[in-house]
């Protein structure tokens, strides 16, 4: 498979994961269920709805799976990720709730809480699926792919390219982990942008992205082929939750 840009970085496991649009549907359906639950307890507050654009902005997808690989993004934000949380909503919307309202939200020993109830409502009747297992496999194929001979050779070329550009990092992870980049703060320095831009250029020129992606894809295809029942369950589980989420927005109560 030819890999010319980050748009080509579509892995076999991706077909079983929720898309950004689907994640928004699930998140907003859960937020609506939480709001309904809180109203039944006399609490008018509700989680904010999530926008697809915000989720996309906060989720790099596979563009950072092999280290920063998007030249345009590197020039704009260096090694920094968006400050949005995983659901694309401002953090801690519930911070202004009263203690009683928070108890209704999170639950206690006598009540599971509105968040847990909403999550359970979306999964009720769905075929069980082992999403943590998929996450483990996802991490393992990435790690194992890094040891593929073609990837090792490409990584050597990447290091040489970086040295030529004036940056001596032993690994792609070391470049991101440079203490000069304070990734917990929003400030992105000009030097960080220059380094990340050189990093992405070297990744593509060395063939590192293409080699790593090829090895990663091959390993994921093996996992999918070897575990048809697990992946069928994942697909069925997601389909059921999406159908239930759609129903939530058709209900009036």
Give the topology.
Layout (H helix, E strand, L loop, with lengths): L19 H21 L11 H7 L12 H7 L21 H8 L7 H10 L7 H15 L3 H16 L7 H5 L13 H17 L1 H19 L1 H21 L5
Helix pairs in contact: 1-5, 1-11, 3-9, 6-10, 7-9, 7-10
Textual characterization of the structure:
With 253 residues, the chain is an all-alpha fold. The longest helix is centred in the N-terminal third of the chain and has 21 residues, at 20-40. Helix 1 crosses helix 5, helix 1 crosses helix 11 and helix 7 crosses helix 9. Mean pLDDT is 91; it is low at 84-90. Helix content is 58%, strand content 0%. 28% of the residues are buried. The protein has helices spanning 20-40, 52-58, 71-77, 99-106, 114-123, 131-145, 149-164, 172-176, 190-206, 208-226, 228-248. The radius of gyration is 22 Å and the shape is globular.
């Amino acid at each position: 498979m030819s890999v010319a840009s980050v748009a080509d970085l579509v892995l076999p496991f991706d077909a079983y994961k929720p898309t950004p649009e689907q994640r928004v549907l699930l998140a907003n359906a859960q937020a609506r269920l939480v709001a309904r639950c809180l109203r039944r307890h006399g609490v008018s507050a509700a989680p904010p709805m999530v926008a697809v654009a915000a989720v996309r902005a906060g989720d790099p997808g596979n563009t950072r799976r092999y280290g920063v690989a998007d030249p345009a993004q590197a020039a704009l934000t260096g090694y920094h990720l968006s400050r949005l949380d995983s659901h694309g909503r401002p953090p801690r919307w519930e911070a202004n709730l009263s203690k009683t309202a928070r108890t209704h939200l999170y639950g206690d020993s006598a009540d599971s809480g509105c968040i847990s109830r909403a999550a359970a409502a979306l999964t009720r009747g769905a075929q069980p699926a082992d999403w943590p297992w998929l996450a483990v496999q996802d991490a393992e194929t990435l790690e194992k792919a890094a040891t593929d001979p073609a990837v090792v050779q490409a990584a050597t070329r990447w290091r040489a390219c970086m040295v030529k550009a004036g940056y001596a990092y032993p690994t792609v992870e070391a470049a991101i982990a440079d203490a000069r980049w304070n990734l917990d703060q929003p400030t992105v320095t000009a030097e960080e942008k220059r380094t990340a831009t050189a990093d992405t250029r070297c990744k593509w020129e060395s063939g590192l992205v293409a080699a790593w992606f090829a090895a990663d894809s091959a390993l994921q295809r093996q996992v999918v082929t070897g575990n048809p029942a697990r992946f069928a369950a994942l697909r069925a589980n997601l389909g059921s939750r999406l159908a239930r989420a759609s129903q939530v927005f058709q209900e009036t109560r």
